[in-house]
Design a protein that fits this description.
heterodimer, A: 423 residues, MetI-like fold, two-stranded antiparallel sheet, 2 strands, B: 283 residues, 75% helix
């Protein structure tokens, strides 16, 4: 090279500095990549992320009370429940005005249903009063306090007013409190009535049963994964089909076969009776209880345990165990001290995967769980499709979602989400 | 797993004991699926083996449950709905998913991890939560209870599988091939279809099969997002199992098992072919 007199930047062919030219190329590349991803990203954001966000929003949203009864809510601000008396004429006048509008728009039943979740009886109170208020003249018929009390003396009940006041803010933590068997009372949080307190029990049961299912999956999955990883490739591929076939079979097919097998007139009971192990008169009850759910879900989730275990065991070099044995270890010591510790990541991955899938399960517990084998997801479905208490369903869903996301975060740390293998 | 000739009796017992345990677990895995096949040919409306069936009498077996499936309008409507929903959802998720997977496999993608997390999320979130959210949101925008609503929901659920399988195939993809094609004058679209697509096709097809089976087997989301007009085969099975359990379910289940076997075989063949193409496994 001759003496370089040009100390300026290196130039690309078109005369622009190379650095800038490279940056431009890189930017173009990034933009192209994003342009390819964008359609799908938008699709997922609209069809999937927006619904999840909507659910999160609904778990705290409570605008219906302040929207339907705006005047009452304002008037109630001055009222103090501590006096032990129902509010005065001003509040009742506001209520009459609000009710009049609400009855016209037919929204008074909605707010009544909303408040009824918190205090039973309010729904009928509102409906009954709605019919009467329709005929009133707001200008001439005052005072309204007596008139409301004439319709139903419950209007004099402090608790009714307390409920309206407590749930008048546009956003509420009430649904979340309900999800853990608490409610908003006059002095902040309080426990709900014992016969209504079911959610902690359900959460505990969901977690307990998922742990049992996870444990039985480890017990059944470990030997299979070990066998598959240590057989010659040809025979292990053949046996792998026996694991993959259940994995690919429809969930409903597997659930229905368990329903057929486990019922009292089903195949298993028939065999037990035939073998003389069980008396024909008292056949075993194996379905519509926790046992049925655990058996069926262990069967359904077992492939999710075997596959990650297998992929980890496949990477354990057989020479380690041989080395241990040549140094005098017994078969058991070689397995327990050398092989097993290396397979622990596989157990971890499989356990988290099975646990995550188990706690969100809906179909199988619904079909074979009866009453004491149902999960929290069944309660969510109940609130959305039958009771209509969407807020509580959304709050329960949000809690479940948070648990699952935390577990996935752990899974990602241990295994990496990109390493999820499919079949 | 060979037993050495010098094994002690204890080792022998353990060796065979282990095999017996494994055989029992395999039995647990596979028997529940196989047992419904003979039961679906039951001539009676029972869910267990009749004495006649155990004695292999021809009159104890019949095709009447299959006949019911093929003639009953409820089941036929469900089958029609399933066949109309699953393929459209699959096409949607495969086309959008493949495009995005190609984008994600480029060397410089900003925000790769968060984007990947969002795209995979439909697989992570429990179905009941997706179903609840979709029910709320789709009723707001008027998609609840419509055919398009169910198709969009199923397409969203199938996308993670397409992304995972196609990006996995693209890991072994040699980028100089697309550059070579471009230097020979092909535009990006032509390069994609003539060079890249044939090589990643096995991944795309198995991703598509996963997406198809996801939609075809899906029941939770369709229960919430769909209305009676979108009653699919799994939905019909679900109500059948919950309310009046009829042996026709076993006939349908047998047909679905046959479909699963066909799909599993296809995916296995594709996987091996793809590994061979990319030179990842010998043979």
């Amino acid at each position: 090279m001759s003496d370089a007199t040009d100390t300026g930047p290196v130039l690309a062919a078109d005369g622009t500095p190379l650095k800038r030219s490279l940056q431009r190329a890189l930017r173009a590349q990034k933009l192209r990549a994003l342009a390819l991803i964008a359609p799908l990203l938008i699709f997922i954001l609209v069809t999937f992320i927006a619904p999840i966000a909507d659910m999160l929003f609904r778990s705290v949203e409570n605008q219906i009370v302040s929207e339907t009864l705006p005047r009452t809510v304002i008037a109630l601000k001055e009222w103090d429940a501590g006096t032990g008396e129902a509010p005065g004429e001003a509040v009742f006048a506001a209520l009459a005005a609000d009710m009049k509008v609400a009855v016209e728009a037919k929204t008074h039943t909605k707010v009544a249903v909303r408040l009824n979740y918190q205090k039973t009886g309010i729904a009928s109170l509102f409906r009954k009063s709605g019919r009467q208020v329709k005929r009133w003249d707001l200008g001439a018929d005052a005072p309204f306090r007596e008139k409301f009390l004439d319709i139903d003396e419950d209007w004099g009940d402090v608790e009714v007013w307390q409920t309206i006041k407590t749930y008048s803010s546009p956003y509420t933590a009430g649904y979340f409190l309900n999800s853990v068997d608490l409610e908003l009372g006059p002095d902040g949080m309080q426990a709900v009535d014992e016969d209504l307190a079911i959610y902690r029990l359900l959460f505990n049961r969901t977690i307990f049963m998922s742990l049992v299912i996870m444990g039985s999956c480890v017990l059944l999955g470990y030997p299979i994964a070990f066998l598959l990883a240590n057989l010659p490739l040809r025979s292990s591929n053949l046996l792998m089909i026996l694991v993959l076939l259940p994995f690919w079979t429809s969930l409903l097919v597997r659930t229905s076969s368990w329903k057929v097998l486990l019922q009292q007139q089903g195949v298993i009971n028939d065999i037990l009776v035939w073998a003389g192990l069980v008396d024909d008169a008292n056949r075993l009850v194996m379905i519509n209880n926790q046992f049925g759910t655990i058996v069926a879900m262990t069967h359904i989730l077992l492939p999710f345990m075997i596959l990650p275990l297998y992929s980890v065991m496949k990477t354990i070099p057989p020479s380690y165990v041989r080395a241990a044995k040549s140094l005098g270890a017994t078969n058991w010591t070689a397995f327990w001290r050398v092989y097993f510790p290396q397979s622990v990541p596989g157990i971890g991955a499989g356990c988290i995967l099975v646990f995550i899938l188990a706690i969100g399960y809906y179909i199988t517990p619904e079909l074979v769980g009866g009453t004491d084998g149902t999960f929290i997801s069944n309660r969510i479905a109940y609130h959305i499709s039958r009771s209509g208490n969407w807020g509580l369903g959304a709050a329960l869903g949000t809690i479940l979602l948070a648990v699952v996301l935390v577990l996935y975060w752990v899974y990602d740390k241990i295994v990496g989400i990109d390493n999820v293998s499919l079949g | 797993m060979e037993l050495p000739p010098y094994a002690t009796p204890g080792q022998r017992i353990w060796h065979y004991g282990f095999k017996v345990i494994c055989a029992l677990i395999f039995f647990f895995l596979i028997a529940p699926i196989l047992v419904i096949i003979p039961l679906s040919f039951n001539a009676e409306d029972f869910f267990t083996f009749t004495p006649g069936m155990l004695a292999f009498k021809a009159e104890a077996y019949s095709l009447k449950h299959y006949e019911d499936f093929l003639t009953n309008p409820d089941w036929q409507q469900a089958l029609r709905n399933s066949v109309q929903i699953a393929p459209v959802a699959t096409i949607l998720s495969v086309s959008l998913g493949t495009l995005a997977a190609v984008g994600l496999s480029q060397p410089h993608v900003p925000f790769r991890r968060p984007i990947m997390a969002i795209l995979i999320s439909p697989m992570i979130v429990p179905l009941i939560i997706s179903a609840a959210g979709m029910y709320f949101f789709y009723s707001r925008i008027g998609l609840q209870g419509t055919y398009s609503g169910v198709v969009l929901a199923h397409a969203a659920l199938g996308i993670p599988f397409v992304i995972i399988t196609v990006t996995a195939t693209l890991v072994g993809f040699d980028d100089s091939l697309t550059r070579a094609s471009a230097s020979l004058g092909a535009d990006p679209v032509r390069t994609f279809f003539k060079v890249q697509m044939p090589l990643i096709l096995p991944g795309v097809i198995s991703g598509g099969l996963f997406a198809f089976i996801t939609s075809f087997d899906e029941v939770v989301v369709v229960l919430f997002v769909g209305s009676a007009g979108q009653k699919t085969l799994p939905w019909q099975m679900f109500t059948g199992l919950r309310e009046q359990i009829s042996p026709t379910i076993l006939a349908v289940a047998t047909i679905l098992v046959a479909i699963s076997i066909a799909l599993l075989t296809t995916v296995e063949i594709l996987r091996r072919r793809s590994e061979k193409l990319r030179g990842m496994s010998p043979g």
